[in-house]
Amino acid sequence: MHEIRTVNDAFLKVAERGEKTAWLWQEASGAWKTISASKVYGRVRALAAALAAWGVGKGDRVALLSENRWEWPVVDFATLALGAVDVPLYMTLTPEQVGYMLRDSGAKVAVVSSREQYEKICAAGELPALEHVVVMDEGEFESAESFASLLARAGEMQARDEAFDAGAREVKPEELATIIYTSGTTGEPKGVMLTHGNLASNFTLSTVPFHFGERDSCISFLPLSHVTARHLDYALMMDGVTIAYCPKIDALRHAMQDVKPSIFVAVPRVYEKIRQGVEGKSHGLKKRILNWALGVGKAHRNETVMGRKPGGVSWKLADKLVFSKIRTAFGGRVETFVSGGAPLGMDTAGWFADVGIRILEGYGLTETSPVIALNLREKYRMGSVGPVLSNLQVRLASDGELEVRGPSVFQGYWNKPKETAESFTPDGWLRTGDIASMDADGFLYITDRKKELLKTSGGKFIAPQPIENKLKAHALVGNAALVGDKHKFACAILSPNFATLEGWAKAKGIAFNNRNELARNELVVARYQRIVDEVNATLAPFETIKRLAVVPDEWSIETDELTPSMKLKRRVVEKKYAAEIAEFYKDEATVTR
Q1: Where in the chain is the domain with CATH 3.40.50.12780?
Q2: What gap in Å lies between CA 367 and CA 63, rounded to an integer?
Q3: Domain 453-590 listed as CATH 3.30.470.10
Q4: Is 501 helix (H, G, I), strand (E, B) or coil?
Q5: Where in the chain is the domain with CATH 3.30.300.30?
Q6: What pTM, to 2 d.p., does this model score?
Q7: Could you read off the pLDDT of 142-180 as tens digits, one per residue?
Q8: CB within 8 Å of 536: residues ≥ 6 apart
């Protein structure tokens, strides 16, 4: 087999697996079906032929607007095999955002999954470059092509074709593979340009130390429009791992029971919700048993952190009563747990370690294809994001900002030369925008986003994310936003975990007609104040939260407070709750700390 220098090389390596299962997908009936590597190859060939017949070739852009399903990587691989460039878009984008990205990228073809996404294209305004729209779902769609019809000849195209393979191999590492629009926690979305070489240099390194193979499986549920999920699927396919596509995150719980994956990769919010689910269902005797078991687990935390299974009678009992049930919720077969996309937080990492689950945290950016650092089974330190990948160099600027260079660093922002120039130092290192530190053993630690640090009027810097993670560790807190930039003190806006809060309120006999009433109830606010007091006890005096507001909203991707990778959109939250923030600071001049 040729050296893996492009995504096309990786695809052809997958094709070599022949009749072995590459992917799993779920029918409407709920039954899981297999797709062999040779079927993958046939479908990619068939779609590539259809795109080529439309004149799609080197450098042309193909937009992809779909949830995770087997069709997604077929479009991806077919586009890249032609030397074209794919532009993956998030499912939650509005028609206006979709229109902006289609116009900005100059997409020639748009492939969408469903009627909902098709209608976004229709409502996106003038799209002068767009020539073809393809819909994956069955149905009547005006001026659109059926995905199934384009794949009509896939069955007879499963045999390896020398001309097709040679064409795919002609694509060079330096050629553009994809434009990924950043989710935009700040400002206008920017199209990150990643080459084949950028992507390949990263996915051929990141999972190698894990020695994954054909006995392993992983559920693909994080949005493939996000580089982390896409990178992971490429890397695991290269390792021979079976990928199971889960289109909706609310179907994940059942998918884990059906697929029983051996690898589980998620953003911190998924782990936080699993923890809150366990704690939110524990009342009375169950709560006492959980707390006892967590105490036992904490006493054995070092063994878990070292990758060893603790022993002893008490741990075995705690494992039988509590920990084994939590593992069963993941399907019961997961050997490797990974977190990325945002900081995990020590509270969440510690809680899972106490139930016998070691989460290996990693770190990266869209602009670095994405992995910069990753904890490994043999090299792990809780709270760090692990050692830096061997082909990257990192350094710290005078203000603590992490700077990086290496083969996975992007080519620039599409149509944005000014922003591209600003993202690099004069001597060519990428400015990550993250404040970091490194210990003597080479483990990297990320403090916070540089732009998100709060500077009090007294000149002290507060990193909001670690404090927000402490708040979110409580079962009653869905999300949290710290504010206080240029003010004397910090305050917090808390979005409740309403499923848990409503259960708590009913148990306490608190009557309410709606979430608005519940969030403003004196007893509810007092309960959240106690949570804040507990967190304040762990903070430096200048970091402590002086005031709080409990809001009647559960923040989500759909309501725009969170990015598609479930990171907080601080600007959106600050604008939405400007009245509450103004109330925090109305008498600031007279407050002494």
Answers
A1: 7-171+205-261
A2: 19
A3: no
A4: helix
A5: 453-590
A6: 0.90
A7: 999 999 999 999 999 999 999 999 999 999 999 999 999
A8: 544, 545
